Automatic annotation (TrEMBL):
Record-annotated Alcohol dehydrogenase-like N-terminal domain positions: 25-142
InterPro entries: ADH-like_C, ADH-like_N, ADH_Zn_CS, GroES-like_sf, NAD(P)-bd_dom_sf
Database matches in Gene3D superfamilies: Medium-chain alcohol dehydrogenases, catalytic domain, NAD(P)-binding Rossmann-like Domain
UniProt name for this protein: Putative aldehyde dehydrogenase
PANTHER family for this protein: DEHYDROGENASE, ZINC-CONTAINING, PUTATIVE (AFU_ORTHOLOGUE AFUA_2G02810)-RELATED (PTHR42813:SF2), ZINC-TYPE ALCOHOL DEHYDROGENASE-LIKE (PTHR42813)
Family statement: Belongs to the zinc-containing alcohol dehydrogenase family.
Length: 391
């Protein structure tokens, strides 16, 4: 089959790889009809390269049609249409029973002291082949895949794989009251949905991003928008009676603009041998923290900062005096996708499209164009906000 493979820093290639096969009786094989490029894929393209291996198959936001099921699979059959959550969870361990599917004890990558295995997401999360490919092997097929209808277009359902539940969890964790103010830093795909979810839940939402096209998309959905610039925390306080927002979602993560020291560290990591670079990431502060520190500065006293953007440094400096003095709550983590999909499925099927799932995709292409679109997405060129690949 054809698949998008990692070849090195800022280098991905479509090539022929072996077709996936049933390995366990609980597996299924899914023919992929749509697979999105996620903002966190760009971390593999850049910062997390030391954990990648040549020819790793990328992608963790797929959906498609079931082609084959293992002998123990009873909830799926050939021809079913399914969305595949990005985290691989069993559904029956202690963590899954607590709604913490991203910490699944059955698929945890203990060799790296990581949580649940993820599709297409490096040695840190199991080196499992991903879904930017023609076919995908799906473990725990009786639990993970979300069965959906046959009538609506893929784009109605595709974002249940990751970014929509990620945004929903981020806003739930932020816990701003109805009528309260939620600020969202970063209006990429997750930030777009987090903004819309906040508005849907009755919150005043202020979105912050330096890219005009992203601000324009958010504004179409009733979000107040600001450019990300020096003094943004003061501007947010001025808009909220001097207090700051009740809650802030950081939908940017480790590659934020405005962090020159960590930016240099990212470049330096790329020059080190993989094992040395891994050790540096696991012991040093290599995250670009400008957005996170601004979120902490911006949020009102007693407020909550919710992190959906990915961070990877083990010694990233944090303003603990400020956090303690302001009595800030910090919530974070990989999304527990299956915890939220039953709530979200009726919303994506609603004719009114209350979360605007049909107004997110800016680029649709075949697998052959994926390398070019990774480059555009990373550089934020050509109005690129969300890419969907059609294998």
């Amino acid at each position: 089959m054809k698949a998008l493979t990692w070849q090195g820093k800022r280098s991905v290639t479509v090539k022929e790889v072996p077709d996936p096969v049933i390995q366990e009786p609980t597996d299924a094989i899914v023919r992929i009809t749509s697979s999105a490029i996620c903002g966190s894929d760009l971390h593999l393209y850049e910062v997390l390269g030391p954990y990648m291996h040549k020819d790793d198959v990328l992608g963790h936001e797929p959906m498609g049609i079931v082609e084959e099921v293992g002998s123990a699979v009873t909830n799926l059959a050939k021809g079913d249409r399914v969305v595949i959550p990005f985290n691989i969870s069993c559904g029956h361990c202690y963590m899954c029973s607590q709604g913490l599917q991203s910490q699944c004890e059955t698929s945890q990558v203990r060799a790296k002291n990581s949580g649940a295995a993820l599709y297409g997401y490096s040695e840190l999360y199991g080196s499992i082949p991903g879904g930017q490919a023609e076919f995908l092997r799906v473990p725990f097929a009786d639990y993970g895949p979300v069965k959906v209808g046959q009538e609506l277009p893929d784009e109605r359902y595709l974002f249940l794989s990751d970014i929509l539940p990620t945004a929903w969890q981020a806003v739930k964790y932020a816990d701003a009251p109805a009528g309260g103010t939620l600020a969202v830093f970063g209006l990429g795909p997750v930030g777009q949905f987090a903004s819309r979810v906040g508005a849907y839940l009755g919150q005043r939402v202020i979105g912050v991003d330096p890219v005009p096209e992203r601000r324009g998309m958010a504004a179409r959905h009733g979000v107040e928008v600001l450019d990300y610039a020096k003094g943004i925390a003061d501007e947010l306080r001025e808009m909220t009676e001097g207090r700051g927002p009740d809650a802030v979602v950081d939908a940017v993560g480790m590659e934020a603009h405005g962090s020159p020291v960590a930016g240099f560290a990212h470049q330096a990591l790329g020059l080190l041998p993989d094992k040395v670079a891994q050790k540096a990431m696991e012991t040093a502060g290599v995250d670009r923290l400008a957005v996170l520190h601004t979120a902490i500065d911006s949020v009102r006293r007693g407020g909550t900062v919710s992190l959906s953007g990915v961070y990877g440094g083990m010694a990233s400096p944090m303003p603990l005096l400020t956090m303690f003095d302001k009595q800030i709550q910090l919530r974070m983590g990989q999304c527990n996708v299956r915890r939220w999909t039953d709530e979200l499925l009726p919303l994506v099927e609603d004719d009114a499209d209350p979360l605007g799932v049909m107004d997110l995709v800016t680029h649709t292409a075949g697998l052959a164009e994926a390398p070019e679109l990774y480059d555009k997405f990373q550089k934020k060129e050509d109005g690129c906000i969300k890419v969907v690949l059609k294998p």
